[in-house]
Amino acid sequence: LHASAPAMRISVRGHNFALVGERTMGKVSWPAGHALADWILERGETAGDAPPPATLVEVGAGCGLPALAAAALGRAAGWSCVAATDFVEHAVELLRENVVRNAAQVHVARLDAVEGGVAALSAVIDEAETAAAAAPPRELWIVAADIHYHEAVVAALLAAAAGVARARPSR
Fold first, then answer.
1. CA 120 to CA 35: how far, in whole Å?
2. What's the pTM?
3. How far apart are alpha carbons 6 and 53 in whole angstroms?
4. How many whole angstroms separate alpha carbon 89 and alpha carbon 7?
5. What is the C-alpha separation between 59 and 33, in angstroms, rounded?
6. Radius of gyration (Cα) for the chain, nearest Å?
7. Which H or E element spans position 36?
8. Residue numbers in the chain where pLDDT is lower than 70
9. What pLDDT shows up at residue 137?
């Protein structure tokens, strides 16, 4: 789809990522995304020899840098499953392109938390964990950066995340 788009090269903690390099929504790596990717990579560096398996879901991912960071570390850092979502279909297409450009194991999905709520977020998580064919994770991390643009969307995402956390069995 965007194979001919120029690549934007980003390095975070010595990990290099290639992203679609056009400056429109979903194609920009914002400072908060860099900070979250840095935190994820730092967590991986300090996770120890056998971190508990965890699923990481980035909501409102845009270009998906934090999800790509988790995927770069993979199971060795405890990320047994990584997913990235966005509401805007064009951003979802760009997420898929960025996953391909980085040869990453990231489940990409469109998520409308306003319309779908807990059920939609749960479905994305279930699909991602099934596709990863990993042991059931003990931890679920739902992360986001730069999603504060629409109060109703943020409220819906927070409500969906809380609902998923309450409904998920303890492992």
1. 27
2. 0.89
3. 35
4. 20
5. 11
6. 15
7. helix 31-45
8. 1-6, 22-28, 170-171
9. 77
